[in-house]
């Protein structure tokens, strides 16, 4: 059960409106690695956790916080859109500053959302649940989480470069910090889990299921051997089970496949053309 | 530039057709973490790599291999669909074994693809590019890669449980092994990069951009303090910059937001209703 | 800012697992009118509200509650999936009860989510933000809300018919009640707003913008005049500005359009084929 | 069965080309509440109507008309794109008026559609069937319809503000009028149905299915009691069954959920990590 | 402008309900090559035609007819769903015939659409505008049309195999015939246009834009030379400009690309990792 | 199995960066008819081919080549983005040339991809598998292929018009040539197959399945008889089975459909409203 407090977790007030920047900021609201993604990813992981109450709680702590981040960015976007001029473009274009800015705002911010934020990315693609991961396997999902926080923090840093507005930058400085924390915590979790389970997820696959002769071999599918020069090549692999080996020549272990002819009732290519 | 060899990298021949299993196997072909996803993710990362030829080559080696895995699974699916009976369902349902199987196959395998594989997941959702990550930041992307290989190997393990067919299992044993290798190699890469850069991605954010007082704090947004009992809580965080601290009570650092009234030309709620 | 309480708002415990029903129940979790949709719709409407603090609060009260409903249904689905058998289908099909049930579960519940809920609908389509409405106009959005609660409650009623499980039905009885409340409250809001503004949204369009001779006319585009027999036909329209009139014959008020030829630099049909 | 008349229902001729406005106008052609949406929504509702021939006819009258509106807007967009210059951007940018306009047109209008309209929205997202509603329940669907016409008319009003072109405005004045009519007719229908059925959809749910103690209660999930001050709070609810009551403190009626451990064959978190 | 006639163009009445077949039939209603696709494709092509009134008329004749086909199939699906039992699955599964059938129907047909058709495909994916083609180039679009009618007729043939219901087959026999006509007409159009323009679309590309030394060469990118044995290999190509030639060995005409290092403000891989 | 050669098939080096053009060029990388589409379409067709090794090889030759085209365009886009300025827009807008260009670049190129290419179209829509066709029927699929190459070459020609950069144009001249070849080869294949099978796909439908009285009739659904004047009207149809005939008046061959009332358990419109 969730309750809402009207005060924001952190400041979300720009120095002045900037509808073009509002369009860009949508990326970390409703993009692939925006705040909606991490909120939903953590909530679903938490709700689906079977056992391990400590990690379930950690995930829910973080998930609930992220809904508040969605709120902060949505509020910021609404303010960046304040009084955005929405009028005849050709007229506006006579003033290059106004013209350039007006043309570049997201037209749906005015037409669809009435100067409000939308759960969409910087190109206007709607957020969708394909962005998130909830597998039931804690180690695998912690990796999804550190991935999401890494990509997310990278995007915040790039957006920080794109504005001089002190109010916007203040909010982004908070998001950078929280993404630092979240990377730290998921990495700490991964280290603890790897210590117990080993590094290869899932750790429950019995060795006899696996063609282990292929488990530590880099195969040179892209001509040229630069990758053989990597420092860790030839050394023990992270799973501690063997050394990395380098296979210069890709080998085809199976024959050329030849499919059975199609039965007539599927109306594939007729027999005379199958020859 | 890519060239194709008709022999398969590994065997992809089931003992006998099984159209219901073909539907399930689609997940690791065209699902969020299927082989198309890793192939496309690695290829785009490789093409976009600026500098670091060793890692570029490693990524391209792996990307090119994965196209061959798409080929193996597509071939397996086509064979699992061999001679799938496609006829009146009610008639078939009189034999419960046939009826159950027929009903459960993916209808598009027959209607749309003529007993062939499709770039779709186990529920028939088409593959889309929102599944992949290519950010230009090597550490961040290596994390995306270890995430993808962890989720992917987990799904292969689950699919292994769902069949007794020795031919299918043989192919899956190869995929398990390659996913082991790929997890190993991306983890090795992450370790090398973290050693040089530090663990928080991107590592190029100057400290003065970040509200560092929030960079190591777990905030208890989900009532109950189980997460405070985690072994690593209170200890040094992976970035080595501070200890994890635990904040029992979430604090709102900003005021309740109040947005400006909408200008009349956007036809939001009229003034008398805004009060 | 949002905080989470681990206790559920209401019971979400089935009498016994039922993976096939779990698949169906996904509709009111992650479908077009599922709980994710109403939660996100209300939160975005609330965050974007400019003025009218009473309605903003009402919307936020309801939005925060809905996240808790997502949680209840996700929990119920995880329990319906408890110990779902996931094995060789043909083997299972020999027992028609098990075979039929196993075949009909959502394969991603096992392969992708490890027996957990997903933000998807009953056919496995991922939730997406195209399902929601946040326009900045309060009257228009209240109509979106009563629409969502009507469709949502209708789906809950249908799902109630599809199970005999007393635990599931208990949860659905709560959702039916809350959807009753939410329909009631949005209707009350609409009535209040219509009284102040009039019934046609947006109410701020000046009459001279509108070709008002077409504002009260039903045009008989589908041959046959059954619709002319509607009780309210010929009577005063809800906006009180005129009576409904019935136009038996559709009239074309404009000429047949003829587009300019394409300029050569777009490589449309070449001139000789444009004739 | 449908027949086409080449004359347009109303004028669709701009004073002069304006490719930037063409991009914006796409919203009411192929956006969430564009004309394709209402056309498809009404046609599917009509085709699926079981009984009630008067309403079926009303719905089909309106659905057939809306295809003609799609035609008008598509024609307008093609004309707004007439002779759109499509050339080297940097060259063009030297003239700020031309540069701004060229940069802001939808690039697919030139590259993909050869200066023609597309079934997409103002950001180029393709129209999809998730935008529409056809539930089989007449009252519920009438609410979907008044929602669609309210959002649609709001967008037309905003687009009217964004142009000074008299030809475009003439077409929009017609669309405003038809949306007025359609709001009026769906509201009249709702009133008639509510009078017969009651206001809560679907009206066929027996009271014993519903936890009616929760059917009239506003729960204060967003701290602060502004919503308690709404005029209608405490008064009889629209369904006439009880007064609205206000619950200041959200109550959790169920225990904290604890899921069963995952069976080993799904390879979720292994037992030692579940603790 | 479009008008509707309530009589159907052709019969759409099954002998008896069959909800499982209803699910499959959705493919030719709302799938990639279903009737919605051809209707929308032809209408947009017609509306965007610049000049050539004869072809514009042909396209509009066909587009308007296709809306009537959508109507026929939607009606058929509603009837196949008549009285579909929608109840507890486990109970039903005791009768293998009923159980198998119930489990295999599209759950959204009951939960979302109230036993009506939906604009979706056989796996429940919503129709979307990415399925259609309208390029402004008549020859190119005629090829899109013959493609659509070929895939569409193939799917109708496969669906014909999957039922014994005489009512369904009667409707399909009509659709097969109309798809024959439409293939014939688009092929006739292509032949006429190719005769005037030549076979390579668009025909307006000046030869000096094209690296013509690569315009007639098959390059053997897939090892093995079976394709060199094709009857037409070595003979004059359809464009009449040269003979087909066969290049046994793929040649790389450009160097290995090396991208510039990323500027620091995008926070890609930092300099020490770029080496 | 696929191997990669680091040298490009052809040059992909612009004279100078142009981030706005990079956005447009995305269309032929990740759009509906971009290189990813043809690569995936041919690979899936090849993998699913049952019999006919010559055509399978031809398809695989072409599919493998197309992955190399994806590579060329991705490389070109990364170079067009070299050192793209990514900073405060309002500041930049003071210089109209820079301002216009910066505003028009795809914001995700900087925020998400770190100045790299993405598998998306010119409006930022992610590539998805609904763009491709693989039906199992060779004649039908060859038509899909000639369609794809026609639309693709048309888009390349339009993009050629939009730049003066000699490096970009050089790459496009190669793509124009390869699209010429691919149109030629698929047309040659179609001609060979049509000669053996006849022109109507699939050719395996027995005549008694088809209501052949409707197989050669153009029905005048769009009022006005321009289409009757087409040169080929009245002449023998391409299938050689009859002459094209022209039906001036559309005829409804079936009665007005009336659906059965809905059973109460689906909670459609209640009985009193069904009347």
Automatic annotation (TrEMBL), chains A, B, C, D, E, F:
Residues 241-259 have a biased composition (Basic and acidic residues). SUPFAM superfamilies: Ferritin-like. Residues 241-275 are annotated as: Disordered. Pfam families: Mn_catalase. It comes from the Bacteria. InterPro entries: Ferritin-like, Ferritin-like_SF, Mn_catalase, Mn_catalase_C, Mn_catalase_dom. Belongs to the manganese catalase family. This is Manganese catalase family protein.
């Amino acid at each position: 059960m969730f309750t809402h407090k009207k005060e924001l977790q952190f400041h979300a007030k720009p120095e002045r409106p900037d509808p073009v920047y509002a369009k860009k900021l949508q990326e970390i609201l409703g993009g692939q690695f925006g705040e909606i993604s991490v909120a939903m990813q953590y909530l679903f992981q938490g709700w689906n956790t079977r056992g391990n109450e400590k990690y379930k709680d950690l995930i829910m702590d973080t998930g609930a916080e992220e809904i508040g981040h969605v709120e902060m960015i949505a509020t910021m976007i609404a303010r960046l859109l304040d009084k955005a001029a929405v009028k005849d473009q050709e007229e506006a274009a006579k003033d290059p500053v106004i013209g350039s800015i007006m043309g570049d705002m997201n037209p749906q911010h005015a037409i669809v959302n009435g100067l409000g934020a939308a759960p969409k990315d910087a190109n206007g693609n709607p957020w969708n649940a394909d962005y998130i991961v909830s597998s039931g396997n804690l180690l695998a999902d912690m990796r999804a989480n550190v991935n999401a926080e890494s990509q997310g923090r990278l995007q915040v840093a790039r957006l920080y470069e794109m504005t001089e507005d002190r109010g916007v930058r203040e909010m982004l400085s908070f998001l950078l910090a929280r993404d630092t924390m979240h990377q730290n915590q998921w990495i700490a979790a991964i280290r603890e889990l790897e210590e117990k389970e080993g590094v290869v997820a899932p750790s429950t696959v019995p060795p006899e299921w696996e063609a282990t002769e292929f488990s530590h071999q880099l195969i040179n599918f892209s001509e040229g051997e630069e990758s053989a020069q990597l420092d860790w090549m030839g050394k023990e692999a992270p799973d501690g089970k063997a050394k990395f080996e380098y296979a210069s020549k890709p080998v085809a272990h199976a024959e050329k496949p030849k499919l059975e002819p199609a039965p007539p009732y599927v109306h594939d290519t007729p027999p005379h053309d199958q020859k």
